[in-house]
Amino acid sequence: MAKSDDILNKLIDLISSQKWNEGDRLPSERNLCNILGTSRNTLRRVFAVLETQGNISIKGGSGAYIINLNGLKKRDETSASKNDESTMESDKLEARYLLEPVLMEYAAECIGDKIIEKLQQRIVYLSKAILASDVQSVLISESSYVQKIMRCWGNGIAHPIMGLLQPSMPLLRKVFSSMNEKEKNHYFALEVEVLKALKQHDRKLLASVIRNRIKNFCRLSEKYSCLKLSPALSKAITEKR
């Protein structure tokens, strides 16, 4: 088991044992590192996973807050819930296909040059992570990428919603460890197209690119993880590109 997965499991055990509630602030990074016996870098990777899943919200200068206790599952748990997890992944992809283009359209109208500049920097890190199949870095980079876009129009609900719809780490691992060079290049090319559409403030183009990006991930998930897609998604990815 990866070190970050082990720390994630320990943190979930800690949350359960302390009986913390939604809205409670987690201990400081320093205290958690001492409690869990880990480094800040590993703890921050764990935080990024939990934030992407919509379990915690990280507020700069304030700390990490629990916002959703549902779905706090330890890594490498063996149970009869694998089919349920597969269904959940498919449901998240379907919801993402329906919601993300709409949410992104609003961002296209109000995004500023400073955010665009930060996104350009972030996409460099993302490209390196994709080509290296560094799943943890891909997740962190994409989470940061989406976070910056969502926050540019000041809606406090949009980012947590997007976090809930992100693919799980196990699914990402299966996909990125199996992708060939051509698929990696295409994956990154779609990320670049998103940035271009944002620069142009073109709502319709952005929505179209986002849909293509999600459909591409659906194809990869179906190919490499045998994920059973919903009928609506299956129909969408077979439509003319």
Largest sheet: number of strands, sense, barrel closure: 2 strands, antiparallel
- Please write the string of helix (H) and strand (E) elements: HHHEEHHHHHHHH
The top level CATH class name of the largest domain = Mainly Alpha
What distance lies between the first and last C-alpha atoms, to the nearest angstrom?
39 Å
Strand content: under 5%
Q: How many domain modules?
A: 2
Q: Give the low-confidence spans.
A: none
* Percent helix: 55-70%
Q: What is the CATH architecture assignment of the largest domain?
A: Up-down Bundle
Helix count? 11
Shape: globular
Compute the average pLDDT.
84
The CATH topology label of the largest domain is Four Helix Bundle (Hemerythrin (Met), subunit A)
User: Which structural category fits the helices and strands?
Assistant: mainly alpha
Kindly describe this structure.
The protein is mainly α and 241 residues long. The protein folds into two domains: 64 residues, Arc Repressor Mutant, subunit A (Orthogonal Bundle), CATH 1.10.10; 157 residues, Four Helix Bundle (Hemerythrin (Met), subunit A) (Up-down Bundle). It is built from eleven helices and two strands. Strand 1 and strand 2 form a beta hairpin. The longest helix is centred in the middle third of the chain and has 29 residues.
Quick description:
The protein has 241 residues and is mainly alpha-helical. It has helices at residues 3-18, 29-36, 40-52, 82-110, 113-131, 135-151, 158-164, 169-176, 181-200, 203-225, 231-238; strands at 56-59, 63-66.
